[in-house]
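We modelled the chain as a single entity of 256 amino acids. Its sequence is:
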Amino acid sequence: MKPRISALVVNGFREARRNRVTVVVLAFAAFLVLSSSTIASAAIVTLDRVLVDVALGSASLLLVALAVYLSCGALNSEIQRRTIFIIMSKPISRSAFLMARVGSILLTLAVLESLMVVLFGFEVVLFRASFQPAQFVAFGMLFLELVVIVAFGVLMSTFSGPIVSAVVVAGLYLAGHQSRDTYARASRSASAVVRSVGRGVYYLLPNLDRLDYKAQAAYGLSVPTGDVLWSAAYGLAYAAVVLVIATLVFDRRDFK
């Protein structure tokens, strides 16, 4: 079973690499090159902060967009090409096939983010800026944020089309970064119903701000190891629950 799953993961990665990854890498590299003049003209006091902001902001924007695109179309392409029936006829369970698709998407994003980290390192050396531990923490937690997004995208793709799935997942991404503000505003409400709804939304939606360390990286702040581990555990646990739900839905889907 494992060799079959590994083959599906590798094939999915090759497909994504041929179609999309190279373009995104080039776009990221071009953006960094074009923004070099702006970074170089910044005040020397803010050079490190501007450099980190540009690199992490660009990486986050491109990777999140790609994660939404790949995950929300993970099953639709297989269904449209009718290859899902060929795969399902082989001795592999639906859950294993779904996890293989998730693995191929995450492998694609991991390789792409690694290349972006390398490009960021070249920029740091080029402008003689400094490396900070928080920068690597921010890139690592960005990947965990992508894991959560991919989990939601795959869940949506098990019962919905790619456009609707992309809209919903993009909305969840935005809402996940506003969950704390939503909870704070609801807590100040005079209505008990509003407070209860706000609390429920806060605990139901993914708290993506908990996985966002870009500010700490930009200002070179120290990041407690315990906080990072708890945040990582939260992101992985949340994604695992979503993927379990996706597996249950996919196991019951009728492709006829």
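As a brief sanity check on the tokenised model: The chain has twelve helices and no strands. The first helix runs from residue 2 to 34.
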